[in-house]
Amino acid sequence: MSKAGILLENGEIFFANSNLSSSTVIGEIVFNTSMTGYQEILTDSSYASQIVVMTYPLIGNYGISDNFSESNKIQVSALIIKENSEINNENNADSLSNYLAKNSTLCISGVDTRKLTKIIRYNGSQNCLITTEKISKKHKKMLAEYSFPKDIVKKVSCTTVQKYKTENTKIANFALIDYGVKNSIIEILCQAGADVTVFPYNTNSEEILNKNFDAVMLSNGPGNPKDVDNSNIKNILGKIPVFGICLGMQIAALAMGADTYKLKFGHRGANHPVINTENEKVMITSQNHGFAVCSESLPSDITLTYKNINDDTIEGINNKTLHFEGVQFHPEAGPGTNDTKYIIKNWVKSVNRDMVNA
Amino acid sequence: MPKDNSIKKVIVIGSGPIIIGQAAEFDYAGTQACKALREENVQVVLLNSNPATIMTDDDIADKVYIQPLNINVLEYIIRRENPDGIIASIGGQTALNLVSEAFEKGILEKYNVKILGTSINAIQQAENREYFKKLMLEIDEPIVESNTFNDIKNALIFAKKIGFPVVIRPAYTLAGTGGGIAYNEQELNDLVYQGLNASPINQIITEKSVAGWKEIEYEVIRDGNDTAIAICNMENIDPCGIHTGDSIVVAPSQTLSDKEYQKLRTASLKIIRALKIEGGCNVQFALNPDNGDYVVIEVNPRVSRSSALASKAAGYPIAKVTAKIALGLQLHEIKNYITGKTKASFEPALDYVVVKIPKWPFDKFGYANRKLGTQMKSTGEVMAIDRSFESAFMKALVGLEESYTGFFNKKFDSIPVEEIENRLFNADDERIYIIFEAFRRKFSVDKIYKITKISKWFLHKFQNIIKLEEKLKKEKLSVKILKQAESMGFTDDKISELTGLDKKDVDILRKTHNIYPIHKFVDTCAGEFEAETPYYYSTYEDEDENIISDKKKVIVIGSGPIRIGQGIEFDYCSVHAIKAIKENYCQAIIINNNPETVSTDFDIADKLYFEPLFIEDVNNVIRQEKPDGIILQFGGQTALNLAPKLLKNDVKILGTTINSINIAEDRDKFKNLIKNLGIKQPESIAVTNIEEALDAGKKLGFPLLLRPSYVTGGRAMKIVSNDTELVEYMKEAVQISPEYPVAIDKYIEGKEFEIDMVCDKSDILIPGIIEHIERSGIHSGDSFCVYPHQTLSDKVVQKAVEYAQKIAKTLEIIGLINIQFITNSDDVYVIEVNPRASRTVPIISKVTKIPLVEIAVNVMFDKTLKSQGYGIGLLPKTNLVAVKAPVFSFQKLPETDVALNVEMKSTGEVLGIDNFYEKALTKAFISAGFNFPDKGNILISVNEKYKIETISIIQRLQKLGFDIEMYKDNSRYYENLNIKIINNKDINNIISEIKSGKLKMIFNIPEVNEKTDSFDYKIRKLIGLYPIPCFTCIDTISAYINALEFVRTNNKLDYKTIDEYIK
Fold first, then answer.
1. By the CB < 8 Å criterion, does B457 face chain A?
2. Does B265 contact A338 at a Cβ distance shorter than 8 Å?
3. One domain for residues A84 and A106
4. Closest alpha carbon within chain B to A275
5. Are residues A28 and A125 in the same domain?
6. A354 pLDDT band (50/70/90 cuts)?
7. How far apart are CA B419 and CA B438, in angstroms?
């Protein structure tokens, strides 16, 4: 096993083991507190250009399975863990090691991930460089000059239109704008009875409005919502029901005149309590976001629907006049709880285009 | 929703005596609940029969009733106290059953008492298999094919239909009492019979076996607003088929994918919502490893042993939050007590691994059936935390305090391969060591998996440990390997043994390269938020999170897992010691590894180290903390045993010096000390062969008490009365060698009594004397006893106090000491001295209102006894009479000989309190589960020695309307005296009389040279499973008859708080 160094923006360096013999990776370092679901996290496009630290110390325990992937490849820039705790059997084709190797993904193990997590908590998410080379001025310079790619959504979005048919009785026909969509979102829509047509992130609004869709889903995705052009969304809103998840909600919020900001270290995990402001019911949600909608910035036609219990940040909004609903968390899970799946299912059942005209 | 303000006074029901399946976890839960209720300004009335609990302290509840847990008492207290509510869900199955009964009898309605938290309806839905089955079908949750039966015939028809093996479980019992897996018709017959007996509603559940599936548990909690969350999930390393209380458990689950984890979590929440439980609840699943199918095995609609484990594993106080929910509060209104910042409506994220291993009583019951199955047999458990599975596991093993340390049990290094295979399949308490041995013999993971069905992931981890063991044996110890071994949880002792290096050299290597563990926080949130509560575990990592205070500080060593002979009473002492240290303006630090206890609750000590009580782990804490002192005398023998090893660290032991402890603990030194003080003691000689034994017999004179230091067949200590018996015993029952000498004591038959006292350098304080009801020869833990003494003469008392003073002075006792005496015609003998807190400290503290532990700690802080104002010398008797009764768990331990002797067998105790001896005695019997039948048969078999004394027993019983049965020839002796005896020589007939209820009890005093094929022995090994008493000492049955006579003539009992009796 090779050695590698993790260089943080604050100058701190961690030395640990690397699965690749030669690699240098740079990205934003974030931590995730989920105790299961490493494969889903690795393949979630929202983590594109991020280096993910898993706080749970044993990763790899149950191997890799085709059903768990949220996209067709590993999306994280690198994975940092305490221990690769897979069943170490050379013939084990479905092991985490093999999966990482196939994707040429850097994985650093033997790290005091709790220490690293606390550094991120104190100092906030920051950029970080990992290299199997000896850390030198060159690397420090690289890190100093690095900035998170503004076109990250472009990199993860599909480039051509893709269609998915529901296996159940079809009750709706949806368009989905792909900012880095997770397979689970498409899956849950289809399960709920929707045919789903997935469009690239920059699809012209007319192209969607002209077709016979009941509603539009704005997907999750990586990066800063302000880096994404929202003019198409502005056009869509009010003309067709729209639902936004995570980045999708943030883009819509910006389009409706609200503001967004970067959280100190974001929310990434499967245990985040969210309260429904209407009935005061609490649900445990899966989350993965570094930005949030600013509550002071909400225009009067936007209502707060869900709030985070830990830090009071916005977890859901709706706009009745524009027929918009959105959640900051991930009702589709993958990984995480099934507590809020019903939100999507109910939405699928209840929306259609006539609502807008009524 | 804000809390329900109409609730101002609440009755909390405890779980009664410690028995297998219901242990210290309910003191932990009850104490948390009481504190939580009082935080909300609710008055707490507490009912529990177990005195060795923190929950029955007067600063935990407003009113404390140490009274029997039965419906009459509950109604009496409800009438007297007029409470607004009652909480059923924190006192185990005992409390749940009692409150259900009160509900069904209309008592709660009559007195307008509201059931707080989970409703009776919900409880019944969860516990009654039929209702439960129906509900699961309704909400589409899969369960195993099962049915309930009240008879054997239909159970058999059903079993044949679904196919063997089938599981039999009695309805409404704890810890699977009387349950098991039947592989054929004969086994089914036996299990159904046992099960019907064990079930209070005479019902058993027969279900398809899912043995070999993964067993997964979820601890979930729900509030009145229907918010429901999963606090922690746990995976049993032992697959289905072994009771979860007897399984090695890991948290969180290790081999479940997120999809599986979420699937079962979702099912748990669906179930708790469907049942409308308000509070904590445990849901158990079986998960098919081949296809991911699952079934719901069981739901416990209350806090449980698992919830205590989950609370400690995740840092989430389930019982406390349950109590708040019972008052109407909602999860998002209750704070997260560990972070202090977030709310209780979140799911803990762990960034460590937790392993729990059960502690079994087979060191005491070597002859009991050790096989593990659906009936729980362990008495306690240890928990360990670390950042890798191997090290958490190894720490837990070390924490078990077996005769060997950790994973290497030499016992198995030469057993044949066939036996390994056999014992891998037939799991018993030692299977884990067999697995290690199998890996040493190069068994493959696949092979072991095939036999055990233990998930391969765990097996790989075990294999890792053996691989490193082999490396240590073969390779030169490099710094790298040493680091690896230390962080995997190998002890220095083990490393030194495996490498052949001197321990000193290992020490030097560690010192030179700074290979020491650091400590990390348990914070419920994996570092996402700052935590306020200092709850630590050790690990080999980079960052040390330990915040070392420069305040004055003292470490208290806890008592580890609950076992026979070292139970909850020492946790009681540890908790009080912590309190007293804090009151002396000092930082109180506890080290303990028992998740069931109050002492390991995160808000008890200023700092909690969840660590094994093994010298190396304790030293790690000392190395970091550099405490001003360490206290050993409250943690039972576990803590005391550390004394000689601690000296090297130059840490100050507060209280009695190590030298004095050594004198008291060493047989010879102690003998000399007592002799030099001119105090009488039974003479004793150690022998290593039969000739020496015969010589000793001549010197000492019969009868003799024989005590082997190594027990073979379980027939450990014995009293013999002539040469023949002596030789026979030495030949048969004892393995003798110079290494294992047999101690021969002159047996002195007499009254036994004991004192607990606290001493400073110049004075002693004895709050009272506890007199045993049984004569000498029965372990003090197993005898009935009474405070204050009832029959001792002033002269005897005076002599005992004088002796106590002499011993205390000579040993320079500082703090607590327990001394046991025998008296025989005004002679007083000292038989044992324990320079530490004893089992009776909680009782004496409660019944005399003298806080022994606090006073002892104050003495250690240089406050003299005189200055503390409780008095000195022997204090006058209080108005209260308290009788302690032992409680046994024989029902859980098939084939255990129920005869009492010098070896302790009880698992718990209850206390009967009143102003009158007979009333207190009667209450003690009631609390211990005895009935007072009107008539029926009593089977009597006594040995020659007690033949005459038994006459009066028989006469008294006959006068009370009982018929006497005998099977021995000595029945003729009584018949000649014109005493009517029924001869019953057929064991099957006896058993059927027990079953039919005709036979009410058995009184058997074993023959001295009893053979294992004797009638007496057979019956005693069988009787533990049946709910009728078997007396094996004449004084116990005599006391029972006293109580019976009292009940017949005057059955008016009243039930008051301790304070009222003392007044």
1. yes
2. yes
3. yes
4. B332
5. yes
6. confident
7. 10
Query: Phi and psi at residue A337, in whole multiples of 5°?
Result: -75, 160
Domain encompassing residue B871: 751-878
Rounded Cα gap, residues A50 and A34, in angstroms: 16
Q: How far does CA A206 lie from the centroid of its chain?
A: 27
Residue B242 and residue B400: Cα distance in Å, rounded?
A: 19
Q: How do B535-539 and B518-521 pair as beta strands?
A: antiparallel
Last residue of a domain, one of A105, A123, A148: A148
What whole-number distance in Å separates Cα of residue B336 and Cα of residue B347?
10
Q: Are residues A120 and A189 in the same domain?
A: no
Burial code (b: 16+ CB inside 10 Å, e: under 16) for B514-529 equals ebebbbbbbbbbbbbb
Answer yes or no: are the C-beta atoms of B521 and B534 closer than 8 Å: yes
User: Are residues B149 and B136 part of one domain?
Assistant: no
Asked if B460 lies within 8 A of A112 by C-beta distance, the reply is no
Evaluate the CA torsion angle B1039, B1043, B1046, B1048 in order and state its sign. Answer: negative
Cα B396 from chain centroid? 17
Cβ pair A73, A43 in contact under 8 A:
yes
Q: Under a CB-based contact definition with an 8 Å cutoff, are residues A239 and A211 in contact? A: no
Tally of domains in chain A: 2
The alpha-carbon radius of gyration of chain A (Å, integer) is 20
Q: How large is the average pLDDT for residues B665-684?
A: 90
Specify whether B1002 is located in the same domain as B985: yes
Supply the residues of A annotated as catalytic. Answer: 246, 330, 332
- For chain B, the domain total comes to 8
Q: Write the ipTM.
A: 0.97
- Give yes or no: residues A107 and A182 share one domain: no
- Residue in A272, A306, A269, A304 with CA at minimum distance from that of residue B345: A272
CATH number of the domain where residue B359 is located: 1.10.1030.10
Task: Say yes or no for a CB contact (<8 Å) between A335 and B332.
Answer: no
* A8 and A45 in a common domain: yes
Asked if residue A285 and residue A221 are part of one domain, the reply reads: yes
Report pLDDT digits (tens) over B621-638.
999 999 999 999 999 989
Angstrom distance (rounded) from CA B718 to CA B726: 10
Residue B888, phi then psi, degrees to nearest 5: -110, 160
> Looking at residue B129, what is its pLDDT?
76
Contact B42, B3 (CB under 8 A): no
A87·B457 Cβ contact <8 A: yes
Give, as one character, the DSSP assignment of residue A331.
T
What's the pLDDT band for B734 if we cut at 50, 70, 90? low
Q: Where are the alpha helices (DSSP H) in B589-711?
A: 615-625, 636-640, 643-646, 658-665, 667-676, 690-700
User: Nearest CB to B345: which of A31, A88, A282?
Assistant: A282
Say what the pLDDT of residue B174 is. 53
DSSP state of A134: P
| Separation CA B358–CA B237 (nearest Å) | 12
SS3 annotation, B891-906 = HHCCCCCCCCCCCCCC
